[in-house]
Amino acid sequence: MINNSLLNRRVLILNQNYQPISVASAKRAIVLMFKDKIEVLENYSDIIHSPTIAMSLPSVIKLNSFVSFKRKNIVLSRRNILKRDDYICQYCGTHSIPMTIDHIIPKRNGGKDTWENLTTACIKCNLKKGSRTPKESKMPLTRKPIKPTVITFFQKFVKKYQDTWRPYLFMDPIEIN
User: Fold this and answer.
1) What residues does each domain of the chain span?
2) What class has domain 78-129?
3) What pTM does this model have?
4) How many angstroms separate the CA atoms of 12 and 34, rounded?
5) Within 13 Å, how many C-alpha atoms sit on residue 111's CB side?
6) How do residues 93-134 score in pLDDT, each as one tens digit?
7) How does pLDDT run across 134-159, given as a tens digit for each residue?
8) Rounded to an integer, what distance in angstroms lies between the CA atom of residue 128 and that of residue 59?
9) Distance (Å, rounded) from C-alpha 112 to C-alpha 7?
10) Is the CB of residue 145 less than 8 Å from the CB of residue 116?
11) In what order do the strands lie in the sheet with 20-25?
12) 26 vs 40: CA distance, rounded Å
């Protein structure tokens, strides 16, 4: 019997040129494998079984054919800002919950909802800063917020059990045999 939680495990999809393009479920990766559309590059340590076969659960797959696509922008959302900033207050460096989203340049001063103007702040710092700029409140940012790239966005989602993804997302050197 196949464990459904294993079939929902995330799999990194690389284009034919090894460019990371997406993340899919293991179930989708297995279907693509049986249709001979992909090459499995890395596996999880888990084995899945059906009545007739046993196989390793794919972790990283590469498409056999190059897929041309328009790169989508990463959605500007509260969740994605928190993820970008590692759930760390960008004023004091604390890692507490709940976190708020702060406008670096306040809306009353013309501040927009952009990747570069939104940052993570703990409730204490957000209240202290108020509707002032970091300079006015004498609260400098620990790091300047930037719009994440697709690669840096993928990197934020790598879990401990997905170490095999790291070389393909430029987090570790690639070992050549």
Assistant:
1) 4-70+150-169, 78-129
2) mainly alpha
3) 0.73
4) 17
5) 17
6) 999 779 999 999 999 999 999 999 999 999 999 999 999 999
7) 999 999 999 999 999 888 888 887 88
8) 45
9) 41
10) yes
11) 20-25, 10-14, 54-63, 38-49
12) 11
